[in-house]
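Bench notes, afternoon.
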Amino acid sequence: MTQKITPFLMFQKGDAEEAMTFYLSLFDDAKIVAISRYGAGESGKEGTVRHATFTLAGQEYMCIDSDVQHQFTFTPSMSLYVGCDTEEELQRLYTALSEGGQPLMPLDSYGFSTKFGWVNDRFGVSWQLNLP
C-alpha cells in the first residue's frame, strides 16, 4: 500500500454532516465517497456520522462526529489553504465561509499575494484563501 495523508476533521456537536454538505456545495469535483452513521444503542448519537470520506477539488478528507467529548477543538494553527483562480471565486468562498464564522484576516493585499483572506468558518475549521 502506498502511504497516503488525508486531512481528518473531528466534530463534537453532531455537525460533521452539515459541515461536509456545506463544503461540498462550495467546491468543484466534490462528493461523498463513503459515510457510516451511529445506530441505535451505539456509543454515538443515533444518525450522526461515525465516519465519512469526501472529496473537495479532488482532495480526499475524512470526518467524524466524536462520541467522546474532548477539551480541544479546531485551531487556526492548522488550516486548509485554498488557491483560487479568480477574484470572484475568492470573494465567493470568503463570504460563504465567513457567514456565522470569524474573519481572522480580511480580504486584502498583504504583499505576498494579489489578494488573501483567512477565516474560521461556523464549524471552527480555519481556511486560508489566496489569489496568487
